[in-house]
Design brief:
By secondary structure, this protein is of the alpha/beta class. The radius of gyration is 51 Å and the shape is extended. Keywords: Coiled coil.
Length: about 950
């Protein structure tokens, strides 16, 4: 009851109104007194605290001064910090115009992207140039974009937008990771981002491609121009006679724009044919058909029955089935894997040519395209031959169809027996056959040869044919070991590549008199290309060749240039097939210089072959013009097994040191001059990144001071900057090689297990240096015993070599057997791979079904979860309602019990009165109005009124 009283104490005025302020004032008064007492106690505590603080300040005034000083210091620090933060934040300067007022470019330097969108929707072709004013690339591209805008301002709207100002809409809506960014829009299609070179001619060319993405092909000559291009071509046939906009034309137009959007290089060209007779040449009959031209594989027609005819599908179909003949490489200048990814595919031929994208014709590219077509034309395709004739500007009869026909209906080409071409080869001394036969006549016989228009048989073999003949001849040389007489022996053997070609070799021994005659003829001849190697031994040590060197001299045999029959289809007859790439020398000449091109070249044309697998590259002589004949010879010389090309060595500039330097710095150009001089040479291999190499400098300086400079040379070479021939390369750094005087072929490597110290180096040099020369003796002619012992020694060497050859042949047969076993295992592995692939596909389908089922279960789970949450919410509401009802029920019970007790008390209070009075005076209702002269109610009614007021407050 004290709790109810406490709650009722808050409204004492109501109790006074009902009860007249009599008996009901007790509970209310107690509540107000308790609240007043609490307020008085809190005020008293505050006063006592202030009084205690003042007393402490009186007793210890220094504590009060310290507190005041600390508060002032905190206020000053806070004020200084806030004022300093305001000074650091400086608002950005308002942007200024990036382009001049006379420029044809609309410059929105405040980043008004909404205005740019509005003018874009009103124009047909728009170029948006997003820039940052501080960006150096944007500043460099400004002049190029302005130059392109001056050429196209009457057709294209150029808009520049400052996308860096923080108050502009462009900065708030666009989030670029680099600048500048160039977008092109063709009406509602876009954006087409341009990522090519930021050059005016390239930008203008790309904009023109966006303006006219389709090439109109009205005649057969232009059709041949379109098909003979090095880039893949897609042709669409549409009839405009019946409708100004035939069905499917807009879709084909959009596919051309899609190709530019996906590939900024525009490697896939799109053309349109409207002539029905011209369309039949490429197997297009129905309007709306799309044709993809391929040079060496079967050309395709878009399968509308299988794939939906949409712009995206047409472009994807062309991209997946295209055939790349040449490819442009345009490195962006930053860190990239572009060249690395291409070089990993195999040997690459890089052609650096000056390229103008806006030029109407490119004669040099046409010659390169002709070389690429001949190089890859393995089956002498009729359509490719027709395109080659068109590139050579040779008049040819009009073809009834440029599409490849079925080989069933074609008559077989006539086969004739061609006359053989022969060359004489002098065998090297290390061949086992040269002991019995030293001269062979190799002939190439073609038993079945396709006669083509203009095929001319040459009396002498080309370099490639003779190199292939030598390869097959050395593999079959054991057939000549049967006879050891002086007669001529001949043998036939098949080619390694063609089943319709075999070689004939006739070998015999040439006497010493004949050899001398050959030598005299060689001395008398003016042309070194036709001279034979001498068989006599010479005392002079020189760079002897271990492989027969066959050169094809075009001056001696001009008829060999009439038709390059050996070059046609060369990519299929060699294991070193080349991928051909083009680079614009106006933009990327730095790459050419690093590959060996002269920096001060008058004409920026350069060709190089890079073979990453062999870790070598070769360059075309810069003195030769880059043309069809030189490219064919360059590719042919690389493709043969024993290539006559010399590996190009890149070295640093020649180091010129004064004479007082103790250590000679060697480069690629000075290596032979230093190492092969008539002195003992100690050579140190080092690199700039080698941490151990600089620690040896003082050791070699002391060694150079100790040894005489007129008979000994201490040198070093930086192998990270200078290439050397393979026989002089090392596999670790630092490495020391010693080249003794007059015995350069007996070079010695410093032991790896010895520390490189001055005493050890001196002992190493003294041990391997040239001994003192013996006194000259009178020259005496060799005796018979000397000659006999020399012959026995040579015979012993010969028998040893024969045993080694037999061992090698046994190893070859064992390797062949192992190869057969490996091939069997590979076939088994392929079968297992196919089986696993099928299992993988099955598992993927099952995984897809399970994933679909999982998604369905997840959706069902989410639905049930939502339903359960709804039910839980409703249950919670019911629980809250029931709790409130229970509370009200409890209060009602309390109220009823209170009323019952009060009624019982009232009955007990009224029981002493006479029953007559009780019946005469009825009880007055509580709410009835009292008359002025009536008696006030008794204490019982006052108590009842107080209880009722309490009940109302309880409710």
């Amino acid at each position: 009851m004290s709790e109810c009283g406490g709650r009722g104490g808050g409204s004492s005025d109501d109790a006074e109104d009902e009860g007249g302020g009599g008996g009901g004032g007790g509970p209310a008064g107690s509540g107000s007194l308790s609240a007043a007492a609490a307020g008085a106690s809190s005020a008293g505590r505050l006063r006592r605290g202030l009084r205690g603080a003042s007393l402490m300040a009186r007793r210890r005034p220094e504590l009060l001064c310290g507190a005041v000083a600390l508060g002032c210091a905190l206020l000053l620090a806070l004020k200084f910090t806030c004022s300093r933060a305001k000074d650091v934040i400086i608002p950005a300067k308002p942007p200024v115009s990036f382009f001049s007022s006379r420029s044809p470019v609309l410059d929105l330097f405040q980043g008004q992207l909404d205005y740019a969108e509005r003018v874009r929707r009103d124009s047909e072709v728009v170029l948006l140039f997003f820039y940052a004013p501080w960006c150096g690339q944007s500043i460099a591209a400004r002049a190029e974009v302005e130059q392109a805008a001056r050429q196209l301002s009457d057709q294209v709207l150029f808009v520049a937008i400052n996308c860096w100002w923080n108050q502009g809409k462009c900065r708030k809506q666009k989030h670029f990771f680099y600048f500048p960014v160039i977008y092109l829009y063709h009406r509602s299609f876009g954006p087409i981002e341009y990522k090519g070179p930021v050059s005016a001619v390239y930008i203008e060319k790309f904009v023109r491609r966006v303006m006219t993405p389709l090439v109109y092909v009205p005649s057969q000559s232009e059709l041949l121009d379109f098909l003979s291009n090095y880039e893949p071509g897609v042709l669409g046939y549409f009839e405009f006679s019946g409708s100004p906009q035939p069905p499917g034309y807009l879709t084909f137009f959009s596919s051309a724009l899609h190709s530019l959007k996906k590939d900024y290089l525009g490697t896939v060209r799109f053309g349109v044919i409207t002539n029905k007779h011209l369309a039949k040449l490429v197997s297009l009959v129905h309007s709306g058909s799309v044709y993809l031209h391929r040079h060496f594989n079967t050309s395709l027609v878009f399968p509308r029955e299988v794939i939906n005819y949409t712009a995206e599908n047409i472009y994807k179909w062309a991209l997946e089935n295209r055939e790349t003949l040449l490819r442009w490489l345009r490195p962006h200048g930053g860190k990239s894997l572009l060249l690395n990814n291409e070089l990993k595919k195999g040997p690459a031929l890089f052609l650096f040519i000056p390229f103008n994208p806006l030029a109407e014709s490119h004669p040099l590219i046409d010659e390169i395209t002709e070389v690429a077509l001949e190089y890859n034309n393995c089956h002498r395709d009729q359509v490719v031959e027709r395109l080659l004739q068109h590139l050579r500007r040779v008049d040819a009869p009009v073809f009834s169809s440029l599409a490849p026909e079925s080989p069933v209906g074609l008559p077989e080409p006539p086969l004739i027996a061609a006359s053989p071409c022969c060359n004489t080869v002098v065998l090297p001394q290390w061949r086992s056959l040269s002991r019995t036969r030293n001269v062979c006549e190799l002939c190439v016989n073609q038993t079945a040869r396709v006669v083509g228009p203009g095929s001319i048989s040459t009396p002498r073999c080309s370099f490639f044919e003779m190199a292939a003949a030598l390869d097959s001849f050395y593999l079959k040389e054991q057939t000549f070991h049967q006879v050891a007489s002086g007669s001529t022996e001949c043998s036939n053997f098949l080619s390694s590549y063609s089943p319709f070609r075999y070689y004939t070799a006739c070998c015999r021994t040439v006497s010493r008199a004949m050899t001398g005659l050959l030598g005299s003829e060689r001395d008398a001849s003016e042309s070194p290309a036709t001279a034979f190697s001498s068989l006599e031994e010479s005392c002079e040590v020189g760079p002897a060749s271990s492989v027969p060197h066959i050169e094809e001299n075009r001056d001696l045999f001009p008829e060999a240039d009439v038709r390059s029959t050996d070059f046609t289809g060369l990519s299929c007859r060699t294991n070193k097939t080349l991928n051909i790439y083009l680079l614009d020398s106006n933009l990327f000449w730095l790459y050419a210089e690093r590959l060996g091109a002269p920096s001060a070249a008058r004409v920026k044309e350069f060709a190089t072959i890079v073979d990453v697998k062999e870790e070598s590259h070769y360059i075309l002589d810069p003195k030769q013009a880059l043309m069809k004949l030189t490219l064919e010879s360059f590719i042919q010389n690389f493709s043969v097994l024993h290539s006559p090309l010399k590996r190009h060595l890149i070295g640093s500039g020649s180091a010129q040191f004064p004479s007082q330097h103790l250590i000679t710095e060697v480069t690629t150009d000075t290596f032979w001059e230093v190492v092969l001089q008539k002195q003992d040479v100690l050579l140190l291999y080092y690199a700039q990144w080698c941490g151990f190499c600089p620690a040896l400098n003082h050791v070699f300086i002391q060694l150079a001071r100790l040894l005489p400079a007129d008979t000994f040379t201490v040198a070093r070479i930086d192998v990270s900057q200078n290439d050397l021939p393979w026989e002089f390369m090392v596999d670790r750094l630092p490495t020391v090689l010693f080249f003794p005087c007059k015995r350069k072929d007996l070079s010695v490597k410093y032991p790896e297990d010895l520390p490189i110290t001055l005493p050890d180096l001196l002992r190493f040099v003294l041990r391997h240096s040239d001994p003192a020369p013996a006194p000259p003796s009178s020259a005496t002619p060799p005796t018979g015993e000397c000659l006999q012992s020399e012959a026995v020694l040579q015979q012993g060497h010969i028998s040893h070599l024969e045993r080694e050859i037999r061992k090698l042949r046994a190893e070859i047969s064992a390797l062949q057997r192992a190869q057969g076993q490996v091939e069997a295992r590979l076939s088994s592995a392929r079968r297992d791979e196919h089986r696993l692939l099928r299992q993988k596909q099955t598992l993927e389908r099952q995984h897809g079904l399970l994933q679909l089922h999982s998604e369905q279960l997840q959706a069902l789970y989410e639905q049930k979860t939502q339903e359960l949450e709804e039910v839980a919410r409703k249950l919670q509401e019911l629980a809250d309602a029931s709790e409130s009802l229970l509370t009200e029920n409890t209060w009602l019970k309390i109220l009823v019990a209170t009323m019952e007790r009060k009624l019982e008390g009232k009955d007990r209070a009224e029981s002493p009165t006479p029953p007559e009075e009780a019946r005469a005076v009825p009880p007055e209702p509580p709410g009835a109005p009292r008359l002025p002269g009536s008696t006030p109610p008794s204490n019982g009614s006052a108590t009842l009124a107080s209880d009722r007021s309490n009940e109302n407050r309880t409710d």
